[in-house]
Amino acid sequence: MSLDDLGWRIEETCFNAFPALRQVLFGDWLLRFAGGVSRRANSANPLSARCAESAAAIELAERLYRAQGQKAIFRVPSLADPALDRLLAARGYASEGETCVLHGALAGLALAADPAVRLLSLPTPAWRRAMAALQGHTPAQAATYRGIVGAIAIPARFALLAVEGRPAALAYGAIHRGLLCYESVVTDPGQRRRGLARRVIAALAAWARDAGADAACLQVEAGNAPARALYAGFGLADLYRYRYRREPPR
Fold it and tell me: pTM for the whole thing?
């Protein structure tokens, strides 16, 4: 499989693993809306390298996001035609949020079932409360996040590792087309550097292997050095990148 083919397969998987609450399809474009919890779920995304009708997509995105009281944000993967990034820059869109997309075959990862890591089939209220606390969500953000994880339609498991009865590390993983996508990997700041996140992602990988997946992927901010070190040590390597372009003040 070529890098482009694998990259667009990962893009599709990540969309399904972190769904928006609403969306608009427009040719080669997917516009996602989810109340501002994350840029990913509130951005316009190309669905192929050619990015056909880019100018029309920009006009549509600006109109639709303004109607939601938001600025248009475009997510620009390095897989896409570089002309898209140049077009947005020429329109004054600022660059932000450089992100690495990681990938690795499950056969090369240190996966391990762990009886201390609970793998839930649904995002229970207790799991959501723990996630909201560790992510620092406001009540409005927690409500939107509840809608996002509740909208996942592909196979998923919601992992929770407690220390002395308190949630210490969480994440979830979802599988599409043989790919495990990691999402929302978070550790209590007071419990970091103890290998807890690694145990959580290893347990999710073991579940994914048993469910028939053969590889894993994950998106992590380029500037998050501790997280990148964790994932590199686990066996996930950089495959491509994306950045966001945000509409300027008008």
Answer: 0.94
